[in-house]
Amino acid sequence: MGQINLLQAVHDALREEMARDERVFLLGEDIGAMGGVFRTTVGLLEEFGEERVIDTPLAESAIVGVAIGASVNGMLPVAEIQFADFIYPAVNQIVSEAAKWRYRTNGAQGCPIVVRAPYGGGVHGGPYHSQSVESLFFGIPGLKIVVPATPYDAKGLLKAAIRDPDPVLFFEHKKSYRLVKGEVPDEDYVVPIGKARVSRPGRDLTLVAYGLMAHYSLEAAEAVAEDGIDVEVVDLRTLAPLDTEAILESVKKTSKVLIVHEDNLTGGVGAEVAALVGQEAFDYLDGPITRLASPDIPAMPFSAALEEFAMPTADKIKQALRDLAAY
Amino acid sequence: MGQINLLQAVHDALREEMARDERVFLLGEDIGAMGGVFRTTVGLLEEFGEERVIDTPLAESAIVGVAIGASVNGMLPVAEIQFADFIYPAVNQIVSEAAKWRYRTNGAQGCPIVVRAPYGGGVHGGPYHSQSVESLFFGIPGLKIVVPATPYDAKGLLKAAIRDPDPVLFFEHKKSYRLVKGEVPDEDYVVPIGKARVSRPGRDLTLVAYGLMAHYSLEAAEAVAEDGIDVEVVDLRTLAPLDTEAILESVKKTSKVLIVHEDNLTGGVGAEVAALVGQEAFDYLDGPITRLASPDIPAMPFSAALEEFAMPTADKIKQALRDLAAY
Amino acid sequence: MTTTERRLRTPTHEALGLTADDLLSMYTVMRLARALAERMWLLQRGGKTPFAVTAEGHEGVQVASAWALDRGRDMVLPYYRDLGVVLAVGMSAKEVMLNALGRAADPNSGGRQLPGHWFHAELNIVSGSSPVATQIPHAAGIALASKLRGEETVTAVYFGDGATSAGDFHEGLNFAGVHRLPVVFICENNGYAISVPSSKQAAVEDLAVRAAGYGFPGVTVDGNDALAVYGATREAVERARAGEGPTFIEAKTYRLAPHTSADDDRLYRSPEEVEAWRRRDPIERLRAYLIEWDLLDKRKDEAIGATVVEEVEEAVRLAEASPEPEPESALQHVFYEKG
Amino acid sequence: MTTTERRLRTPTHEALGLTADDLLSMYTVMRLARALAERMWLLQRGGKTPFAVTAEGHEGVQVASAWALDRGRDMVLPYYRDLGVVLAVGMSAKEVMLNALGRAADPNSGGRQLPGHWFHAELNIVSGSSPVATQIPHAAGIALASKLRGEETVTAVYFGDGATSAGDFHEGLNFAGVHRLPVVFICENNGYAISVPSSKQAAVEDLAVRAAGYGFPGVTVDGNDALAVYGATREAVERARAGEGPTFIEAKTYRLAPHTSADDDRLYRSPEEVEAWRRRDPIERLRAYLIEWDLLDKRKDEAIGATVVEEVEEAVRLAEASPEPEPESALQHVFYEKG
Ligand SMILES: Cc1ncc(C[n+]2csc(CCOP(=O)(O)OP(=O)(O)O)c2C)c(N)n1
Ligand SMILES: Cc1ncc(C[n+]2csc(CCOP(=O)(O)OP(=O)(O)O)c2C)c(N)n1
Ligand SMILES: [Mg+2]
Ligand SMILES: [Mg+2]
């Protein structure tokens, strides 16, 4: 058991899965000699060779398309999209092909690929290196979507994703890579896909979040605890399939819900959580279903002043918690 | 004033806008000599020539990318994607480029393209000729999304879309093309983007829908009126920007809401409507926020038996209305 | 041809290593493809299915190219028009008809996809979708997997001329070129993408010239000359199997029927043009060759015709008697389901 | 070169129709690009901006190719590395520095985009994003619009070698080929896409061979030879203006600095390799030519250096004094706003 950061957790999961199963291989841009622009694949080329750590041409549709082909021919490819912002050229392969493969073969064949991509803002990356892209894929039947918040979850969920028989999109918050540290056991383990985690139990109010926002939410929850507001934080971990049970169980207990995400407000995952609560926990509700998210702009601008304005922060979450608690 | 079908309304809007403004031109697959696989562009090649009705190579990213380029160089392109199911290769151009152009130029330049695409099921098209793709684009800041239900709205909204300074996705339900008829005035008119329409006033319950489902909803509303349930039907017409005012006004009046769409349930536009109501009309609500949609499968299968099972119908809507009214 | 003349020349098929039996089987499969296609139109017009997509005119390129593959070992990615390809690698007429009528027992997708969207795990036929060109990167990935495991499997991927304009065509060929993958890219260039003619699809006469941009050979063959197609494909398959990388084969042909049952081809091409190509029918051409070399006579040909018709009718009977999928089964198999 | 030798030959620049003044201006812009780049590194390392992307080594292809355009008439689509291009078509050092520091007055995007993401409506510089290759279809569309209006405008679009692997490269070139559009495609092939070397990007030696697949000429030039680049581009621009369609120019060059401030190029290339290319610096090469032809001497060169430095320092001063954007302005301009 040791303290590692999220970057290391991702790295270790890849390394261990490659060592464990010959079918696992990596493909993406700059993942070889360079070890990835974020350094998540450092050392893997040296350890596993060029055949299993493939630096691809600059072609995201091919990265995913080749992964799909390899996966239906017995391999377990892990594709890296250098920034989530560059996943769009691969949308056709992901949505038309990977997501529908099992359905269209009437269950006879699956498409066990993992597509990893660093997402999120707060890193002065401008609108094309800061996006949260999960809402675009959320609700596409046939896709699993994972967004780990902690090193423990990142490692365990990435292993689960690689072993999963269906396609998994795995989004890693790039600001979390070095910022977020945590305990990770030495032995092999997986964290099941599709299960949320109560990262802080509480009685007064449910706060649903994921990714970097799960941390900011915990921070905000601790802060308002001093004002006597006891917040339960549900870290979704998996967005699809959504752990509806965990959400409903918490909301039915607390009667109030705040949903937080970094993705822009409209059409975000928060909308589905809100809809779920509004339909299935209606009778338990004691206050408006509340969302806090980035404004509806095309991701964070480069200028620090603009970016700070756009990012949800622990302070903004605190305020929303106080408002809702006071309702 | 005459009765025309939705197909004719789309055709007439294109023709009139091309006659009205030299900057308008069309590009897409099979739109020239053939007049479009659905025959929406019949006669336009003959009338306006090959330069303004361009049969493109089979390349959706180029169709949209070329349209974007032409639009920032003074033209008003209307791109056709042959089936909405084939819009995915163009997602990068739509989301990274068209949607963000004005924002990234700090307001200095817009990208006035229209992307038209026939969507929807019930036509034995199988999973790749039946999809509703709006939820993928919904919530992408910078995109307007229009889904007309009637010939009047189709014509007026398409004209508005062509004249709009920003990119508009225009989805036409392919089953409505010949099925849906209605009155359309002879003189030029536009229907403003961003405004919903109460297509049936009622007191007991609000039913929010769009596209083909707006018709099925009206049908269901009339049917349950005989049981004394007075349903107000709100036809969204525009999905983005969503007419939040119209939705809230109706729900605050009726206290109950059923949201219906053909797109699959999870992550659909209905989730955002539900979230809006759950936050902004919470105090007015008298029953759970209810959604009815296609199941979470990758669009309708080909077999008639499977397709019927998957499509929302007037009967299914009736049942949902009765259940909610009885709550 | 006189007997003496015949004695003086080596027949093309022998030069290509095909026995007379091979060639007759190939011919029979081409006729089966044609007969199935014609029956599909009847079923569609008779309201037995809402949709049909057929391949009349493409039988030469489809059957002869697939004939060069090692059945059951090589991987095949057909596109929606490739009825002849799937028959050549072993799909039965019955399976084709189960697909055409969307029955639960259809091995391709159990009635979920449109007819012509092929899949058959046992025959190494890889599942295809409707969006054009997506299968091209898949082929590269499949071949990459074979290569990573050190297998000598070859992957053949099919597509039309329209597909060559799509980004995935480029990305897939480029990837295969960089990794020298054992793939044969087979373009059935029928001069149209639905109504869009070649001149609006690309500014080159021969699409095969593009292969040079990916660092591997490209050849253009007469797609209505089954023997020429077979020869070109065999060579490409051998190169691939020997680790020498991909080949791009452009087979020029023509679609004698409308694009699909949803199309009216009179809107964009003349009856004269169609008629001219009908005279170059690949089946007639192979028949003439067989007769020329005394491998076939009228009686034998009629017998083949009768067998083929019987096979088709039997397939239709069985398929029509086969049940539709259960409505609720529409919910299944979005994800892996245990058990 | 002796005076006699000189008298016997026509200087290359004259053969290309460039005056001595032209050439000196071109040289000055190349030096300005270099000086700005070097200053950007200092600003980034000094914490004045979190990000820098520069073009050392690319000045030859960038400045000389843009020099062949009709400024203010032709349309230009640079990519993020094209500091030299935007300077050549008229962007000022101050505007570049406003961009580098993300100030509200930055004409490129008012601090919204990363530095190097160019836009200048008055200079016909078309807005570019980060996703690689998307600008290539835009160029086709821009040229299509010019053609539809009967204008003789030429569109020049720039991209790196990595971009040639993307689907949009293929789709854009194909579209331009089919419509014989007035576009010049300029590939700055520096042998790397970040760390990925040419050998893993494509299986061909010269990317220019791909043009044949789109039905128009492709040429490979030495990108560090400004005069060769100018010549090739001028010819392509003339062809385009005369309605003869597109040209693909591949200029081979090298990036002397890391990819961006976020890169560590020692991870994927040797100091020896960088050093070897440093000896082929396009600025040095043009300087040598100018000196050879007596168009420049040490004194004059130093004066140019001094002017350039002054211009850069003044630009930095003005940009640093210029205000940041207002936080709330982040919400503006998602859609058109009246007034
Ligand atoms: C990405 C995509 N765009 C459009 C279509 C609609 N479509 C179906 S087939 C076709 C033409 C294909 O032509 P080609 O590749 O030449 O094959 P052919 O049908 O001629 O054999 C088109 C445009 C599609 N299926 N996929
Ligand atoms: C679609 C896409 N994928 C990945 C990236 C990340 N990325 C930025 S620049 C770059 C390399 C580009 O190389 P090249 O086109 O050769 O241009 P150069 O930087 O060498 O001038 C990559 C992979 C991107 N910006 N866009
Ligand atoms: Mg074709
Ligand atoms: Mg490069």
Explain this structure.
The complex is a heterotetramer, with 2 copies of chain A (327 residues) and 2 copies of chain C (339 residues). Chain A has 13 helices and 14 strands. With 327 residues, chain A is α/β, with parallel strands linked by helices. Chain A is globular and about 60 Å long. Chain C has one domain: Rossmann fold. Chain C is α/β, with parallel strands linked by helices. Chain C is globular, with a radius of gyration of 20 Å. In chain C, helix 3 packs across helix 4 (59-67) and helix 3 (20-45) packs across helix 13. The mean pLDDT of chain C is 97. Chains in contact: A-B, A-C, A-D, B-C, B-D, C-D. Chains A and B meet through helix 4 and helix 11 of A and helix 4 and helix 11 of B. One thiamine diphosphate sits between chains C (81, 130-132, 159-163, 188, 190, 192-194, 255, 259) and B (29, 58, 60, 82, 86, 89).
Morphology of chain A: globular
Principal-axis shape of chain C equals: globular
Q: Count of DSSP helices of chain A?
A: 13
Order of helices and strands of chain A: EHEHEHEHHEHEHEHEEEHEEHEHEHH
Major sheet size, sense and barrel closure of chain C: 5 strands, parallel
Regarding CATH, which class of chain C? Answer: Alpha Beta
Roughly how many Å is the radius of gyration of chain A? 19 Å
What number is the mean pLDDT of chain C? 97
Binned, the helix content of chain C reads 40-55%
Quaternary structure of the protein: heterotetramer
CATH architectural designation of chain C: 3-Layer(aba) Sandwich
The separation of the N and C termini of chain C measures 63 Å
- Uncertain ranges of chain C: none
Task: Tell me the structural class of chain C.
Answer: alpha/beta
- What is the CATH T-level topology of chain C? Rossmann fold
Order of helices and strands of chain C: HHHHEHHHEHEEEHEHEHHH
Note the beta-strand portion of chain A: 15-25%
Say which molecules are bound, naming each kind only once: thiamine diphosphate, magnesium ion
